Amino acid sequence: MVTGQTAPAPVAGGTAEVTARWRAVAAATGPADRAGVERAVRAAYRAVGLAEPAAVRWFGSPLAAAEAALELRAAGAVTVRETVRTLPWDAVRRQAVERTGAAGWAPLWALTGGELGPVTTALADRIRGAVLDRLAPEPDTENDEDDVIEAARERRTEVRIALLDAVRGQHDAPWFAAFEAAGVPAATPGAPGGPADGAIAALAEVARGAGWWWPYADVALISERPVALHRDEAGRLDHADGPALAYSDGFDLHAWRGMPVPADFLAGLGDVTVERIRTEENAELRRVLLEHYGYERYLSDAGAVPVHQDETGRLWRIDLPADESVVMVEVVNSTAEPDGTFRTYWLRVPPTTMTARAGVAWTFGMTEAEYHPQRET
């Protein structure tokens, strides 16, 4: 580990540019430069004193690679993830903190890893959860025999362990952004530095060109990046016309505004009816249907009636089976539009709301007793 460093050298383009570059890496789609990625993988092994893997195997998705990892583990393969990734990672992280100082690391992280982390980690967690569920579905504890349940649980444990062997490639972008912004030698491939720097530089090269990968003593398993990624403005998986995340081998995830949905669910959104919403048994999917249909439209088409009215607006409620009621306040903007009309707004409020005033107050973070506007706008 390098010690006695001065403050980090200025990063070319600034922290914002570094973060933007690694944001693009985290969201990158399309085929990898396989030759370049393989060179980087072999360099990562050499940097920590390991022999290069005898073979590098490519897969279309993390699902296929994880399945191969399970087979390798069953055959006695030895993971070298700790040596290749964990130990140099810890060393370079300490180095980054030393270079920035304890007081400087926190704001630097907030602008780099903290900026990229929530969205990137959420995506990686969704991939991990989907791989786990497809390779080892949850047992049916109500209908399956005890031995079947136990076998299913053991299988899920095996898959979880295999997933722990993975290096997340492009989804490690938040950390690479922080390391580069901190000015550690690992920021630039080929820069002078110790073994940890060389290993991190190689890992960064893999991340720029590939998805998840699994380092074992004799073989490295590498997943291609996705071929399609669709997200909403909040960074959540979201696509109404097909998979929100798709890989070349058919592994994909469907989602609506971050909510996981079955592959065939979104195909029928264009024909949603009040009856379909009423009869949907899954409460989370029913909320997706409601969002797509529109709460105001649903209240109108479902024959809802106001349950309370006062000078602030009207309170509407409609009950749903096995779910919380839809309760909304209808308010009219007191400021006229340019054409002289007054716009109506619908505000969804907690199902426990009993009066229109209480609902409007809730939208301002107040109780009904506290809400006494002097002038409404």
Describe this structure in words.
- The protein is an alpha+beta fold.
- The protein has 2 domains: 14-225, no CATH class; 294-363, no CATH class.
- The protein is 45% helix and 12% strand.
- The chain has 13 helices and 12 strands.
- It has helices spanning 14-26, 34-47, 62-74, 81-100, 102-111, 113-135, 146-164, 173-182, 195-209, 274-279, 283-293, 295-301, 356-363, and strands spanning 55-59, 213-215, 219-223, 228-229, 245-246, 252-253, 255-256, 259-260, 306-310, 313-318, 326-332, 344-349.
- The strands form 4 sheets. It has a 4-stranded antiparallel sheet with strand order 9-10-11-12, with helices on both faces. Strands 1-3-2 form a 3-stranded mixed sheet, covered by helices on one side. Strands 4-5-6 form a 3-stranded antiparallel sheet, covered by helices on one side.
- Strand 9 and strand 10 form a beta hairpin.
- Helix 2 packs antiparallel against helix 9 (195-209) and helix 6 runs antiparallel to helix 8.
- It starts with 13 loop residues before the first helix and ends in a 14-residue tail after the last helix.
- The model is unreliable at 1-10 and 187-191 (pLDDT under 50).
Helix tally equals 13
Shape: globular
Question: Whole-Å distance between the termini?
Answer: 60 Å
Radius of gyration: 26 Å
| Tally of discrete structural domains | 2
The overall strand count is: 12
How are the strands of the largest sheet arranged?
Answer: 9-10-11-12
Strand content: 5-15%
Which regions contain 5 or more consecutive residues with pLDDT less than 50?
1-10, 187-191
